[in-house]
Amino acid sequence: MIDYKNYFKNKKVTVVGLGLLGKRLGDIAFFSECGADVTVTDIKTAKELAPSLKKLAKYKGIKYTLGEHRFEDFENKDFILKGQGVRLDSPYILHAQKKGIPIEMDESLFMKLAPEVKIIGITGTRGKSTTSILIYEILKSAGLRVHLGGNIKGTAALPLLKIVKPGDVAVFELSSWQLQGFGEDKISPNIAVFTNFMPDHLNYYDNNLKKYFLDKSFIYKYQKKGDTLILSKNMESLVKGAKGKKIITDIKKIPKNWNISLLGKHNLENIACAVEVAKLFNVKEEIVKKAIEKFQAVSGRLELVKNIKGIKIYNDTNSTTPEATIVALNSFPQKVILIMGGMDKNIDVSSLNKILPNKTKKIFLTPGSGSDKIINKKAHIEKVQDLDDAMNKAMKEACGGDIVLFSPAFASFNMFKNEYDRGEKFMKIVKKLK
Predict the structure, then answer these.
(1) For residue 174, what are the domain limits?
(2) Does 66 share its domain with 112?
(3) Which end of the chain is more exposed for a tag (fewer CB within 10 A), N or C?
(4) Residues 231 and 322 in one domain
(5) CA 217 remoteness from chain centre
(6) Cβ burial, residue 358 (10 Å; 0-12/13-18/19+)
(7) CATH code of the domain containing 277
(8) pTM of the entire structure?
């Protein structure tokens, strides 16, 4: 293992993107603990970032440029740590590259610094969080030394360097943006899991689905012969040129007698991926079965949050695309009362519009540029002011046996900080219901 303290000591680092989700907090605190000279820059203001700044107040050696980026912060550095969502063609990133400064991202940097740790990387437009956490729980149940990180709220990869040992396993959920770091370094996880691929983030990828898939493909593109790629069956025709061993999952292999609480065919596909990873580690079937049967829906992903007089309320705030909401709707055998709406991501909504009359009893539509595209005269659609208004009207509409599903289908940024903030506000509303 590389001596991380000496590696980072006195290094001059610019971290791009502090944010509010907690991922960068861990990395920045870690750099400070190692004695690095850290500059943090974010286009958000100090007022907007106050919760994150408060948590970092006790750490030394951190300078801040907030409310803007400055070219001088991208000069005379040992490396730049780029947060996900920061574009590679940003003029500031390009400026650093022209100066010969390496651009790093935390998960790929972790992999380079901990070569004796086996990395399991999970990506996909949908299901990567559920699959990642399920794999982690199965391996932990089997007694392995396993760590969880990546695109999981509140986690950071680099602080794991303080606790990992040779032979440990790190399970990383990896978004397309995080995989840019793997592409830059021409590396891929030892075990790669690719759950599915649907249109998403087209506002970021300039309406080019190929650009989006290219970033996703770094999950396997630089694997070696001894590595493994696990694919859901619907991914087989999309993935080309994989060098490692390829395993195609099959939900039919999941025993019928397993008592699975997760809803929907998509979750069976997630489970099938996790089962194949467990096989690679020779985990006994009874341990896998027990872990899967114990596993509950991840927060904000078809999560049953309350049952009021037979009315079941589900939080699916992380469904930020039309396709994700279609998957959620298809997870229920009956028509649901749907709360949806938000900001457009330049994704075609025609398929969602088409199924709404057959899958919904009533739709309460919150404001947003995406919401404006939800038009179907056969569907019962009512526009509402906000989530409070939507929930109150949904509960008045519902009766025993009904399902109230909050599955937005769009991004949250017109009314919320992010989808987690949206989900937390929804949960506060639900908790008040009696």
Answers:
(1) 107-294
(2) no
(3) C
(4) no
(5) 16
(6) exposed
(7) 3.40.1190.10
(8) 0.91
282 and 189 within one domain: yes
Please state at what angle helix 209-217 crosses helix 176-185, rounded to 10 degrees: 60
- The residue out of 69, 103, 137 marking a domain boundary is 103
On whether both 62 and 184 belong to a single domain, the answer is no
- Compute the distance between CA of residue 62 and CA of residue 39 in angstroms, rounded to an integer: 6
Backbone angles phi, psi at 324, to 5 degrees: -65, -40
**How far, in Å, CA of 134 to CA of 411, rounded?**
25
Nearest partner of 408 among 366, 351, 350, judged by Cα: 366
Same domain, residue pair 226 and 245: yes
Helix (H, G, I), strand (E, B), or coil: what is residue 379? coil
The mean per-residue pLDDT over the stretch 97-119 comes to 95
Strands (DSSP E) contained in 43-173 are 62-66, 79-82, 103-104, 118-123, 146-150, 169-173
Residues 265 and 174 in one domain: yes
Q: What is the mean predicted confidence (pLDDT) over 198-219?
A: 89
Instruction: Please give the radius of gyration of the chain, using alpha carbons only, rounded to the nearest integer.
Output: 22
Beta bridge partners of 13: 38, 79
Max CA distance (Å), the chain: 65
The per-residue pLDDT for 241 is: 87
Residue 130 near residue 271, CB atoms below 8 Å: no
Quick one: pLDDT at residue 234?
86
Count of CA atoms in the C-beta half-sphere (13 A) of 408: 32
98 burial via Cβ count (<10 Å: 0-12, 13-18, 19+): exposed
State the pairing for strand pair 303-308/311-315: antiparallel
* Domain's final residue, options 54, 72, 103: 103
Residue 330: which CATH number? 3.90.190.20
Q: Cβ(121)–Cβ(191) under 8 Å?
A: yes
Do 243 and 317 reside in the same domain of the chain?
no
Claim to verify: residue 278 and residue 427 sit in the same structural domain: no
How many domains does the chain divide into? 3
Please tell me the predicted confidence (pLDDT) of residue 410: 96
Mean residue pLDDT of the chain comes to 94
Q: Indicate if the pLDDT at residue 175 is higher than 90.
A: yes
- Edge-first strand order for the sheet with 191-194 is 146-150, 169-173, 118-123, 191-194, 228-231, 245-248
pLDDT at 20: 76
pLDDT of residue 1: 74
3-state secondary structure of 295: coil
DSSP secondary structure code for residue 343 in this structure = B
Q: Supply the CATH number for residue 83's domain.
A: 3.40.50.720
